[in-house]
Specification:
mainly beta; Neuraminidase; five-stranded antiparallel β-sheet; five-stranded mixed β-sheet
């Protein structure tokens, strides 16, 4: 059987346009890898931009959420509702990832993953751990809790996590929709030393940033943030008649910087105040302090995870044309509170000179009325240069790559 026939190939098609939302635990049975004899059917309604290919990397993976690779090519997938982290490996380089083991279990709301210096770091809503597999069986042999008793557990409980050679960056979002939590540790990005000491405020005014990453070749901290809900509520909007909320406010792609304020809950998008705070005497000052998004996404698209196309990997593996270098692939989970659903896609955010300038949908998968759907959660660049994206409905991991021409630009 040839290389392509061993994987499930999804429908390819050109997208006509790029028009421009909250989830204890016992180890579950290991999921199956995709293969040629699988009875799995392609998600209904999914379209893929011409020149790209989507195949199934891991099938039947309930509650597949965030992903990370270690330095040996092992794929880690967190499942917060189940409370575990599973491991997979592509043993024959065909783009299909076979189950390896349960790396960690009993971790309610386990979410963020970040590999650094031989350790896989994992965030729960209120704690951060690091663990490592010393014998290659895909199971953690040593686990250390670095931070505990952090705020979280409710509302937008997803704790972001980035670990560098000397710093932990982490955040947890709004406990509600537009709560004023100025005097709490929520809605902020914090820095810690690797031992959990030296807590320092990094940035504030975020609503629900679930993943943090450096742009390749820099120490610029980037994240995607959810816009707030019911923007037009104070105007008297009702279900079925919400023309303002349907298109406001935007979701955001932000470059987070030390001591900067990003507006939430008072200011949204490009310095637009929420109606609920119009009587605050300091509203103009808050607007003046607010850092506007580097890029605004559609309202309620719900960007959860993302990855950058690392030029060092792409130049070596050539899975995408060279003009993709430095761009971001963003996973949009999709709206729950728009009259017409939106999001449910993987989009490429185009960068030039370190700043976004455009967006192209690559995979579009609005849910079928019967419930079959693609609801992307996270993206990660694989060692072979392709991009994997997870979907928690249905529970799978997909592989995305470029096949448009034989010659890679």
């Amino acid at each position: 059987m040839n290389h392509l026939s061993s994987r499930l190939l999804l429908v390819l098609g050109s997208l006509a346009s790029a028009t421009v939302a909250v989830a204890e635990s016992t180890p579950a049975a290991a999921p199956a890898a995709a293969d040629a004899t699988s009875s799995l059917s392609a998600p209904k309604g999914i379209t893929v931009r011409a020149g790209y290919e989507v195949t199934v990397a891991v099938e039947k993976l309930d509650n597949a959420r965030f992903m990370e690779f270690d330095d040996k090519g092992t794929l880690y997938v967190s499942r917060p509702n189940i409370g575990d982290v599973l491991t997979f490996r592509d043993t024959n380089n065909d783009g299909v990832y076979e189950p390896l083991g349960t790396f960690a279990s009993g971790l309610k709301q386990v979410h963020g993953l970040c590999f650094s210096d031989g350790w896989m770091w994992m965030s729960q809503s209120s704690s951060i751990h690091k663990a490592r597999d010393t014998d290659g069986d895909g199971k953690a042999d040593e686990t250390i809790t670095v931070l505990k008793n952090l705020p979280g557990g409710n509302g937008h409980w997803w704790r972001s996590l980035l670990v560098t050679n000397d710093t932990i960056y982490t955040s947890v979002g709004d406990s509600g929709n537009i709560s004023d939590e100025t005097n709490t540790d929520r809605q902020k990005i914090w820095r810690f030393a690797l031992d959990g000491q030296r807590k320092t405020l990094f940035a504030s005014g975020i609503r629900n940033t679930e993943k943090l990453r450096f742009r390749p070749g820099t120490t610029e901290l980037w994240g995607v943030d959810h816009g707030s809900d019911n923007f037009g509520g104070p105007l008297g909007e009702k279900p079925g008649n919400q023309p303002v909320t349907d298109l406001n406010p935007p979701c955001e792609f932000n470059k987070y910087e030390q001591d900067k304020f990003y507006g939430h809950p008072f200011i949204t998008g490009n310095r637009v105040p929420r109606y609920e705070f119009m009587k605050r005497p300091d509203l103009l000052d808050l607007a003046a302090r607010t850092v506007a998004p580097e890029w605004s996404f559609g309202a309620h698209w719900a960007p959860n995870g993302f990855c950058f196309v690392d030029p060092a990997i792409n130049d070596a593996k050539k899975q995408f044309p060279a003009d993709h270098n430095g761009d971001a692939f963003v996973a949009f989970h999709g709206s729950w509170n728009r009259s017409d659903r939106a999001g449910y896609c993987i989009a490429r955010v185009l960068f030039d000179d370190g700043r976004p300038y455009g967006l192209l949908k690559l995979v579009d998968g609005l849910p079928d009325p019967k419930g079959d759907a693609v609801r992307p959660v996270d993206c990660v660049m694989a060692p072979d240069g392709s991009v994997l994206f997870s979907s928690d409905q249905p529970g799978r991991v997909y592989r995305l790559r470029w096949i448009g021409t034989d010659e890679k630009k």
